[in-house]
Amino acid sequence: FCSVGAIWGKKYTYFSADRIITEIEYLIENHGAKGIYFREDNFTLNLKRTKDFCEKLIGKGIKIEWACETRVDNLTEEMVELMGKAGCRAFYLVVESGMQKVLDIVNKKINLDQVRNVIKWSEKYNVRSYCSLITGVPGETFKDYMLTKRLMDKLNPYSYSFNVFVGIP
Prior knowledge:
Number of strands: 5
Distance between the termini: 11 Å
């Protein structure tokens, strides 16, 4: 289970859209970058920044493919469409489970309709969705695990994988 808050604290810091654009331009011009992976826990937490970033990439005609980590509760169909137009080609979605009871146990504050929608929109706007799941949460049964696997097979994200739950105080 995600340890970011326990290790790094709850403060969220980020670069502005302009700063990111400047760094991407530098990487393209000086290193021939063809793609960027944003290793930020929730790239879309600040939707204003995400929208500004996408619009500036499009407006400047910067053609680069990129991927980011995000949550399903931060995305709307309009945002997924804009991100796809701006070159986003993949989402790393921290879904955790396909069972609402498990999502509630880990206090994920998302629901399965949000998961379904984001995977559907991702496919519609040519953005691959990768779902990260956990298994072994106290209270989860083998049946819950199998139902989660069955849901992923039905939703058919680009890829998904399970990690074993490790509780971190």
